[in-house]
Task: inverse folding
């Protein structure tokens, strides 16, 4: 039950990371690709800092119906197991102990209320020698999707 509690709580945890990519594409073509990518993902420009060459974007990330249902099912399974153990340990509570299962949808509701939020992504594009560097800061899943979609980006290790 403790692990299940932390798993459900972790489903809404902020997972912001910063990754450095390089590419042989020019700055202009990279910026066009980034603009198209983030437009498709429903991100809008929040701020542009020309002195540091940083663009900040913001978009609303909707919660996943599948994950809400999955978390509710996991919670139901956890409460069912707890009810079985308690019914063996305290036989007098056996009829009412299975009412713990009514708490299971609370996991999905908790996720749904806390997972939908505004996400921010910022990026900086610099030309270094014959390569273009892209420094991106955002949610881990968003950065992974960016790398998969723009396959010409090469991740650099710090």
Result:
């Amino acid at each position: 039950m403790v692990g299940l509690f932390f798993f459900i709580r972790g489903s809404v945890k902020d997972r912001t990371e910063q990754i450095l990519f390089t590419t042989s594409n020019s700055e202009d073509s990279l910026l066009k690709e980034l603009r198209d990518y983030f437009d498709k993902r429903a991100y809008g420009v929040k701020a542009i800092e020309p002195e540091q060459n940083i663009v900040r974007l913001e978009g609303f990330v909707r919660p996943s119906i599948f994950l809400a249902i999955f978390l509710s099912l996991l919670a139901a399974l956890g409460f069912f197991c707890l009810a079985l153990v308690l019914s063996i340990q305290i036989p007098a509570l056996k009829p009412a102990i299975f009412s713990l299962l009514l708490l299971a949808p609370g996991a999905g509701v908790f996720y749904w209320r806390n997972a939908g939020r505004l996400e921010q992504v910022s990026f900086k594009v610099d030309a270094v020698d014959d390569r273009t560097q892209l420094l991106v800061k955002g949610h881990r899943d968003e950065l992974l999707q960016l790398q998969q979609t723009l396959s010409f980006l090469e991740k650099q290790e710090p």
